[in-house]
Amino acid sequence: MGTRVDHAELVVSPGEFFQISETERIRSSIGLRLSDHSYLPKAEDPRADWVASVAVPAFKTLAHMGVLAPRFCTIGTGAGLDALAAVEILQARTVGFTDLHEDVLAYARENIRSNLLSKDVELIGGAGDLLAPLAGKLSQIDVIYENLPNIPMAGNEDLADGQTSSTFITERSEEIPGSAEKNLVTLHYLALQQAHPLLRVGGRVLSSIGARIPLSEILALSGAAGYNGSILTYTWKVQSEPTEVVGGYAQWEREGLGPFHFYPVSVLHDAFEGLSPAAAGAQALKLEEELAPFEMSALDALALVEKGERVGHTVAILDSVKIPDSAL
After folding, report:
1. How is residue 55 annotated by DSSP?
2. Of 166-180, 281-295, 303-317, which gets the smallest average pLDDT?
3. Phi, psi (rounded to 5 degrees) for 66
4. Does residue 156 register a pLDDT over 60?
5. C-alpha 74 chain-centroid distance
6. How would you classify the pairing of strands 94-99 and 122-127?
7. How far from each other are the two terminal CA atoms of the chain, in whole angstroms?
8. What confidence tier does 6 reach under pLDDT thresholds 50, 70, 90?
9. Secondary structure class of 57 (helix, strand, coil)
10. What are the angstrom distances between the C-alpha of 286 and each of 220, 279, 317?
11. 3-class DSSP state for residue 324?
12. Which of 151, 197, 236, 239 has the fewest C-beta atoms under 10 angstroms from its C-beta?
């Protein structure tokens, strides 16, 4: 078994979870402690976990391109697994990390620190909204990674109550493009805006976005926020927390947003069979076109979920590279 859960403790094997046979900078058995607010890693089902199935392949793709991240930052780190993956794969030596809750941040800091073999890693954490907690603490970042929630929170929910990993508070003072609101990618856009002054020129934001909307709309986020954008990797995952998440999208479809796209798991498995996430990223628009006949709306997908069937969705890593101001 690759994992063990004991109340608020979890043990993860990088060999199974990160597909790394021998680690050099992190422990070969990762012990995690979790707060009640922490997003629980899907350690027994990596295909359903964002770090295992999305972040790690993206980091490996960058490393294969020769892009490392001595100065790395993750927004909404949760248990800290994405930061540990960056230390191992991207050779991160300065690690910024944020999360909304103070208790999650404290556990993440200890999880990262206690699982490091390398002693040359500086940790800079902050609790609060997106990158705001790191303002003035971190600059000239090489890579910022984010996997942020998409679904606006219903009025009767409480952000402090348990794991509200798929939702966020909608009241924002910033100006947000209408397309970002309609497509439920508001936080991804705001993260790109906040990241710009913290990145070095040529630095990048990796936005991990469930591609339940057209890839063209995802790519448009980079341009709207002043970056050069491309799809770095393209993959798929089983929808985790399907009743809550698909149900949330279905509710917003009823309100006139979307539509949002889901697919049968068997279709996704066959479409991506034999393709690495990087190879799929290079032909993402073609794959999206081939999948189009099998799209289901959130309302249709919810009907399948309620029958006990599994649905999935595609995932894109939007690679937004900071360009010199003179190029704007």
Report:
1. I
2. 166-180
3. 85, 15
4. no
5. 9
6. parallel
7. 51
8. very low
9. helix
10. 18, 12, 16
11. coil
12. 197
The structure tokens 């020769």 sit at 66
As beta bridge partners, residue 35 has: none
**C-alpha dihedral, 246 to 218 to 72 to 74, nearest 10°:** -20
Q: Which of 73, 87, 84 is nearest to 41 (CA)?
A: 84
Give φ, ψ of 179 to 5 degrees. -65, -35
- Phi/psi for 230 (5° steps) reads -155, 165
Determine which of 16-30, 43-57, 130-144, 168-182 has the lowest per-residue pLDDT on average: 168-182
Choose among 146, 38, 57, 163: nearest CA to 97. Answer: 146
Question: Would the CA dihedral through 289, 267, 261, 146 be positive or negative?
Answer: negative
Q: Answer for the pair 269, 238: CB distance below 8 angstroms, yes or no.
A: no
The number of beta carbons lying within 10 Å of the beta carbon of residue 124 is 16
Give the number of C-alpha atoms closer than 13 A to the C-alpha of residue 228, restricted to the C-beta side.
10
320: number of CA atoms within 13 Å, CB side? 28
How far lies 98's CA from each of 79, 108, 225, in Å? 11, 9, 21
**Residue 96 bridge partners (DSSP):** 73, 124
Mean pLDDT of all residues in the chain?
90
Q: pLDDT (tens digit, 9 = 90+) per residue, 158-208? A: 434 444 444 444 566 778 888 998 999 999 999 999 999 999 999 999 999
Helix (H) or strand (E) holding 206: strand 199-210
Residue of 265, 251, 257, 273 lying closest to 296 (CA atoms) = 265
pLDDT exceeds 50 at position 299: yes
The residue behind tokens 């089902």 is: 45
**Is there a contact between 192 and 225 (Cβ–Cβ < 8 Å)?**
yes
Match 């996997």 to its residue by tokens: 147
Those residues with Cβ within 8 angstroms of residue 172's Cβ, 6 or more apart along the chain or in another chain: 186, 190
Indicate if the pLDDT at residue 313 is higher than 70. Answer: yes
CB-based contact 166:260 (threshold 8 Å): no
